[in-house]
Amino acid sequence: MLTYPTIDPVALAIGPLKIHWYGLMYLIGFVAVFVLGRKSAQQAWSPIKPEAIEDMVTVGALGVILGGRIGYILFYKFTDFIHDPLMLLKIWEGGMSFHGGMLGVFIAMWLFGKKHGCSVLQLTDIIAPLAPIGLGAGRIGNFINAELWGRPTDVPWAMIFPTGGPEPRHPSQLYEAVLEGLVLFLIMQWYARKQRPVMAVTALAVLLYGCFRFFVEFFRMPDAHLGFIALDWLTMGQLLSLPMILIGGFMLVWAYRQAHNA
């Protein structure tokens, strides 16, 4: 069993102002998309110019934050929301959903694309290879916060989390950081280095994230207030990832068929 490396969730405190590691992880993701996005926009097939990346990242960040918060409330806290609608605004209490954030990005890119004369999928094809940086960083933030820990286990690398009771648990946040962050980033960088059919890059990212998340959920503790959604093993995370696997696979096949018939 490994010792959980207790880290202060507050990275920097200046008087009453506290900067949390989790917030810095979001910042890392947005900065990475901005820096690497400008490089991607230099490709001949890019639908936008590098100078438009700053506005795209700003709009996308709003989509992530608003979509992530709204998605968390609707997917994981809907019953509480019915009794207390103002909890939607209580962002200081935490709670973000990847699936909600992803939908928020799609909506944001649709609005941005209307202004710049390109499709939402052309824009998400730029973002998709870069998003795993933010995903991996976010999971490290979860690990620092000692939240979203895994199920009890006796594997040699199990950890006792300060908020997870006395039982050793899977460090599932690190599993997700590796799969959804590092592995997904490497695959997407390899795949996107050449021009692909419109929608194909987005489709592969959606498909792979859905598969990775579905797999890791077998090691991650389901939300206490939800438990298992069905069949005594299906979690909310898996339920939300299943459509991603199906839609991502369909989009990938459709993208190549459209390119072949063009």
From TrEMBL:
Top-level taxon of origin: Bacteria
Alphabetical UniProt keywords: Cell membrane, Lipoprotein, Membrane, Transferase, Transmembrane, Transmembrane helix
GO term, biological process aspect, one: lipoprotein biosynthetic process
InterPro entries in the record: Lgt
Residues binding a 1,2-diacyl-sn-glycero-3-phospho-(1'-sn-glycerol), per UniProt: 139
Biochemical pathway: Protein modification; lipoprotein biosynthesis (diacylglyceryl transfer)
Transmembrane parts of this sequence: 19-37, 57-76, 96-113, 198-216, 228-256
Molecular function GO labels: phosphatidylglycerol-prolipoprotein diacylglyceryl transferase activity
Protein purpose: Catalyzes the transfer of the diacylglyceryl group from phosphatidylglycerol to the sulfhydryl group of the N-terminal cysteine of a prolipoprotein, the first step in the formation of mature lipoproteins.
Record-stated family: Belongs to the Lgt family.
HAMAP family membership: Lgt
Name the record gives this protein: Phosphatidylglycerol--prolipoprotein diacylglyceryl transferase
Species, as recorded: Methylocucumis oryzae
